[in-house]
Amino acid sequence: MAVEPDSAGVRFPPPLVYLGALLLGLAAERFVPLSSFGIDGRLLVAMGSLLFVAGAAIMLVAAGLFRRLGTNVRPTQPTSLIATTGPYRWTRNPMYLGMVLIYAGLAIGLDGPIALALLPLVLIVIQTQVIAREERYLEAKFGDDYRRYKAEVRRWL
């Protein structure tokens, strides 16, 4: 993935981090006996579907806002402004939050406790390798404006 010089310097697509861990966890389910939440499958699908839809909605709204504002969605490209409206009023990372909900929804809906157990590791990778880089970049590029926003809005929720 080509990384622009004026960017956060993220070297891999964050959605692939989530997808890779999810697939790894679901594959591990085949080798671990009795790996199940032990809950009725219909309830798991219903809960998973709700989380998935909520996550997808948050991601689509956040990405749509970036497009309407004329800034790039990909962390490998330059950011032209700080989004502070829509979901960005409550979280600085609604797209990553949406990915968390989608991941959790799929792991639960597919009865994958091992996949769900890997989610904290994914969050550590996203926090240290993606969000930390983005925050350094935005602080360097937008200075006090970003620092004020950072002080007012939480990283996740």
Structural description of this entry:
The protein is elongated, with a radius of gyration of 17 Å. It has 157 residues and is an all-alpha fold.
Question: What's the short story on this structure?
Answer:
With 157 residues, this protein is mostly helical. The chain has five helices and no strands. Helices cover 64% and strands 0% of the residues.
Radius of gyration: 17 Å
Mean pLDDT: 94
Q: What is the rounded distance between the termini?
A: 29 Å
Helix share, percent: 55-70%
Biggest sheet architecture: none
Number of helices: 5
Q: What's the number of extended β-strand segments?
A: 0
Low-confidence stretches: none
How would you describe the shape? elongated
Topology of this protein?
Blueprint: H1 14-29, H2 41-69, H3 94-109, H4 113-142, H5 144-152
Helix pairs in contact: 1-3, 1-4, 2-3, 3-4, 4-5
Key words describing this protein structure:
single chain; 157 residues; 5 helices; 0% strand
